[in-house]
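Continuing the series of single-chain predictions for the mutant panel. This is the parent chain; the variants come on the following pages.
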Amino acid sequence: MLFVTAEADMPSFLPAAENPPCLTTWTNAEIAWNLFIAIPDPVLLRFGTRPWKPRKQRAAAVGAMTWLHASLARKSRPYHRPPPEMMWTAAYKDGMTADRSSRRTALITGASHGIGAAAASALAADGYDVAVTDLDPRDLATTVEDIRARGARALPVALDIRSEASIEACFAAILDAFGTLDVLVNNAGVPSLRKPAVDIERADWDRVLSVNLTGTFFMAQAMGRHRIAAGGGGSIVNLASTHGLVGLGGASVYGIAKAGVAHMTRMLAIEWAPHRIRVNAVAPGATETKSRIALSSPQHKAKALARIPFGRYAEAGEVAAAIRYLAGEEASYTTGHVLVVDGGLTAA
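Parent structure:
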């Protein structure tokens, strides 16, 4: 009896190059044909005195064996062959580019300090050439120096993610310098607005949403267009927040924007999966950055720490480690995921 279990066992009439090294599902016609040529006639003879009727009894035996093979196949749950455009070959196992001879490249927005600067340092240490952006590129001097100290190329770029023209100019500069872009870290944003919902003005709403949600979307769109034109692959890591996952009074606009980022991540992950573009997000809790230190009073900090099971703020490097994971090959099968880094806040 002939059962196909692996690529090495495939019959010659099935093109081996089109089959991944896993269990392969045959059509009923293929099963029937192999059973027809593989089962010797004596096996198909019924015991007893009735004469052998070749056509009728061979057909019955083939039908029975076809059913048996299908039943076994269902129990072993073989993988069905995916369409060619969805096959994850070894060259694309990390969701990046097929050409691994060139260095990988990454773009990190809002990288002058804090999480953005830490992410730039982590990716440079991981072998990426890194483009970093801020409204004023002169503020990127320390980040650029750190990237180059790790043996990577650094490209500081002025960027206002509220402007589509600025986004286009940014991508043009990066592609001119690096030739391609493998990873986008959507980190740029404005800090949480602490204001009761009844006091929010349209200008407050527009200031936060235009950067934290709208700008993030159009940066992802530009990256998606580039990667699709380049043949697919690549990774986008958005910065969401625990504010977008749980309710918190007095920070409604910021929380709404970050909730939008989390769901945008899932929507784009589904839409771009056929192009092997992975889209994920990191949702940090309170993180020790310059902006937080500037905005937090001792009373506010004490109240915030009381809600965190770890009893401390995250360090920027801890959030950067999550970004590095989602950007790289270790997360090659991860897309549409929001990775929470919050010291247990949302679990409490």
